[in-house]
Specification:
Shape: globular
CATH architecture: Alpha-Beta Complex
Number of helices: 5
Order of helices and strands: HEEEEHEEHEEHH
CATH topology: Nucleoside Triphosphate Pyrophosphohydrolase
Strand content: 15-25%
CATH class: Alpha Beta
Largest sheet: 5 strands, mixed
Distance between the termini: 34 Å
Number of strands: 8
Helix content: 10-25%
CATH superfamily: Nucleoside Triphosphate Pyrophosphohydrolase
């Protein structure tokens, strides 16, 4: 369970901001065979890979989750957890109170990404009351900064260029008392504080090397959230 990234200081006040225009991202993803721009249209939400947490993870898992990520990148999952107000969960790293991020973590050998996302969420936040709503239909990659790559790979005993991430949209269905940054006790805690924030704030707080991934994730998930909040059926 490794979550990486350096974030700027997070204000204690979370005011609402409009969502950014993400139709023209600065960086494309050559390993994503889909045109993600189509997911910005509500009428095309049927193209989202929708899954139900109440059904069998193996039988309902979209085939895109089993695609092979690009060579040289560590398989990883990202969790875009939202509450009933469509605010996004983010937490600060232990020992680095100005470093905030969404939950993420590595995929074990032989593990499917959807199960990995559920496991990582439980290990990092203690959350088990959540339903999987959608996933980005391909792997999104980011490279480790050169100054950090050697240290990271020395710790892992590997030679990864960066991480290939499968992102999942989950709806938190429990009570906030369930959130426990000690996790489920199977791994060392990673986070010190947590908060709900707007998608725009999540993007603003992302380090530069992660912003292209965050933009693509928002491009896919934001229309779903807008539809969900307005009561429109998919």
């Amino acid at each position: 369970m490794v979550a990486l990234g350096l974030f700027v200081f997070l204000n204690s006040s979370f005011d609402s901001h409009p969502l950014p225009d993400l139709r023209n991202p600065a960086i494309s993803f050559p390993y994503c065979p889909f045109n993600l721009d189509k997911f910005t249209q509500l009428q095309r939400l049927k193209h989202l890979k929708l899954v139900s947490s109440s059904s069998s993870s193996r039988s309902s898992l979209p085939s895109s989750s089993m695609e092979t990520p690009p060579e040289g990148y560590r398989r990883n999952v990202g969790i875009f957890l939202v509450n009933s107000s469509n605010k996004v969960f983010a937490a600060s790293r232990l020992g680095f109170p100005a470093t905030w991020q969404m939950p993420q973590g590595g995929v074990d050998e032989g593990e499917d990404p959807r199960n990995a996302a559920i496991r990582e969420l439980r290990e990092e936040t203690g959350v088990t009351s959540a339903e999987v709503l959608a996933e980005v239909p391909c792997w999104l990659t980011y490279d480790f900064p050169l100054e950090a790559r050697e240290k990271i790979n020395r710790r892992w005993g590997s030679d990864w260029k960066g991480q290939a991430q499968k992102w999942f949209l989950l709806r938190f269905t429990g009570k906030e008392e369930e959130i426990n940054l000690l996790g489920d006790g199977t791994e060392k805690p990673e986070f010190g504080e947590w908060s709900w924030m707007t998608p725009q704030q999540v993007l603003e707080l992302a380090v530069d090397f992660k912003k292209p991934v965050y933009e693509e994730v928002l491009k896919v998930f934001t229309p779903y959230l807008q539809s969900d909040s307005s009561g429109q059926a998919l």
